[in-house]
Amino acid sequence: MRLVTAVSTVAALAGQALSQDPPFPTSCSGVAAPQYPYTLDSGWQVTKIASGLRQPRTIIFDNVGHMLVLQATSGVSVHTFGADGCINSTKTLIQSSGLNHGLTLTPDGKTLYASSQTTVWSWTYDDAALTATGQKTVISGMGQGIHSTRTTVISPKNPNLLLVSVGAASNWDNPTIDPSVGRAIVKVFDVSKAPANGYSYNSQGTVLGYGLRNEVALAFDPNGHVWGAENSGDDFRRTVNGQATDIHIDNPAEELNYLGDPEAPLANTWFGYPTCFTVWEPSNFRDNTALKTGSQFVVTPNTTFNDASCEGKSNPPRLSFPAHMAPITNVFDPAGENLYITFHGSWDRQPAQGYFVAEVPFQKGADGNYEPVAAADSKTGYKNIIGSQSPGSCNSPSLTMSTCWRLAGLAWDKAGKRLFISSDNQSSGEVFVLQKKA
Question: How would residue 15 be classed by pLDDT, with cut points 50, 70 and 90?
């Protein structure tokens, strides 16, 4: 598939000056009011800056402060800001119906990567001309299934290392116990050594972590180490001695996983799927009262493999979140004091939950590594800074259809002061900017 670049300009871009640190806008002229009601933490302020985008899934910023947005099934747009902090021009950078999620830029701002379900491409990016040229295939052959997005991120410490996540092909993708199948996995590719026709995803690259059902959200802490937020399983029933109990309302937990340094992967890179899952609500497990939030369990324990068997074999999460909230993007603040996560919201739980941005406090330990402040068994290791006003009543019959917003994209501006979020609800693709109050 060949993509068309720089095909349309919505507003003239020539001669426009851009501030690296524009002010926080209190309102933006011509932007429709937010489509869905929300609540906002008292320590933050928010303004809607864009609407009418087509499923804005991912947001990044170039080195001069332009905002790039991957609009799923449409392509990539680039947006400049005026002196008032509002968007003052928009241009189509890449037009492609195949692009659906992954978007990343090298630290020097010169190479752009984006992904479809099967392929990652690169372009030479020019932040002055606002063009993306010289399309190349970097990785191909990624498998297809119910999880179609392919998170694509460049290491900030080593710009040759490209991380790509592929989710499971189904709720129970049992073959992924073998990492060579290339699903439920995060792999690292050295783009400086890429073959002329690109890497084959399944057979090449280095495993950073597998047994990761759908690790859509990938973020780098200030050390350049990777933290993934995982979408765990659906419709679970715990079967013990032939007796099945429905546990799916509150289990399994969504996970925050430490994947480590992409230049030196962990000794054990298995994170449990499709065998070991994480407890959110322990009271559902009446047969094993030793389980607590953050513990790992198996759906059908037996004499060969039971809950305890996960210990020492599977890497447990460093923190857990309520079931079915669907983390999409995560990003650290510049100081590494907080990790922010967009939760897309549940579709198979009543009442529904999610539909908010979480702030997860972090701290730097004596060993120099970053860790969540909360213990692994905590249920209070995060807080909602902005979210749907009535999440329990949200009805989301598909990935991008909902009676509420579907929070997806998340990015700091280059100054690290303004936090941008997107909703990819197909009825009204919106972008908002948040900033902490002084």
Answer: very low
- Helix then strand count (H, E) for the chain reads 0, 33
Mean of pLDDT values over 172-199: 97
Read off the pLDDT band of 2 (50, 70, 90).
Answer: very low
Please report the DSSP string for 101-138 in residue order: S-EEE-TTS-EEEEE-SS-EEEEEEETTTTEEEEEEEE
- Average confidence (pLDDT) over 45-63: 97
Closest to 116 in 3D by CA, of 4, 206, 196, 3: 3
- Residue 349 corresponds to which tokens in the numbers above? 């739980």
The burial class, CB within 10 Å (0-12 / 13-18 / 19+), for 128 is exposed
User: 226: which residues sit within 8 A by CB, 6+ positions away?
Assistant: 163, 186, 208, 218, 219, 220, 258, 259, 260, 261, 262
The number of angstroms, rounded, from the C-alpha of 10 to the middle of its chain's C-alpha atoms is: 28
pLDDT of residue 3: 44
Q: Is the pLDDT confidence value at 9 over 50?
A: no
Quote the strand ranges of 271-413, DSSP E.
277-278, 296-297, 319-321, 327-332, 338-343, 356-364, 370-372, 383-388, 407-412
